Amino acid sequence: xxxxxxxxxxxxxxxxxxxxxxxxxxxxxxxxxxxxxxxxxxxxxxxxxxxxxxxxxxxxxxxxxxxxxxxxxxxxxxxxxxxxxxxxxxxxxxxxxxxxxxxxxxxxxxxxxxxxxxxxxxxxxxxxxxxxxxxxxxxxxxxxxxxxxxxxxxxxxxxxxxxxxxxxxxxxxxxxxxxxxxxxxxxxxxxxxxxxxxxxxxxxxxxxxxxxxxxxxxxxxxxxxxxxxxxxxxxxxxxxxxxxxxxxxxxxxxxxxxxxxxxxxxxxxxxxxx
Length: 274
Ligand code: A2H
Description:
Helix content: 25-40%
Structural class: alpha+beta
Strand content: 15-25%
CATH superfamily: Valyl/Leucyl/Isoleucyl-tRNA synthetase, editing domain
Bound molecules: ligand A2H
Strand order of the largest sheet: 10-6-7-3-2-11-12-5-13
CATH architecture: Alpha-Beta Complex
CATH class: Alpha Beta
Oligomer: single chain
Shape: globular
Distance between the termini: 10 Å
CATH topology: Isoleucyl-tRNA Synthetase, domain 2
Order of helices and strands: EEHEEEEEHEEEEEEHHEHHEHE
Low-confidence stretches: none
Number of strands: 16
């Protein structure tokens, strides 16, 4: 948007061993075994976010079922990141540690793809998401993802992102729709909205407040959804106050850079520009 590159924060959601015995997970199981055998540090889905301070409210991760993803080896951390090829190429031209001249991949601009996936093959995977209150969350389908933006993976914070709330609610309310994607009730039902930011006049889960106030029933309510997003994003950032995590009580705008830097220092997140 606007002038210059957009800074995203890549959040590292560790892929855990599939726990539903689904055939769609054959390729990821093979990759997890290979990575373990080779002594690499793990496989991660890496959503791109503009709001790293909201990770306390994660309930799931989203991929596009028809999207094309790859598993790329990251030399700098000895890990494997699952993302779009486009974003992997971008990352391979970026510094992991600029001060020490370390890039994400050993060779500038060169990517090493260990496996390819459709989003469909990544649905229903258990993940460990940094700062989330839930010990594990699942990968769910989101049909509005653009593969031309970020990594094509989106982490879900239904308390503060109306898109995330509408998508999670649809999967909870329509088990038949969810089942089409192999999503079972236990992957969605236990995951309630986690309040993390209080906004005067909007309560402590502004996306839920706005979706209920405007009676947004689905993604078809486009104009109302746009209004809900515009309002919650602006108010959340300008007058929101953190109510969760170690920075509870701080203004969102003050907490954001602190949390971002903490997550990067802990190896839970990286900067990504495009
Ligand atoms: B944000 P921008 Cl709580 N397709 O993260 C669709 N949406 C995508 C995407 C893609 N390929 N990649 C990232 N996004 C989402 C959290 C969040 C976000 C909150 C509130 C607002 C918000 C939790 N989801 O974004 O158009 C991601 O959702 C407000 C715009 O590239 C990412 O940040 O600028 C944001 O959109 C990036 O949007």
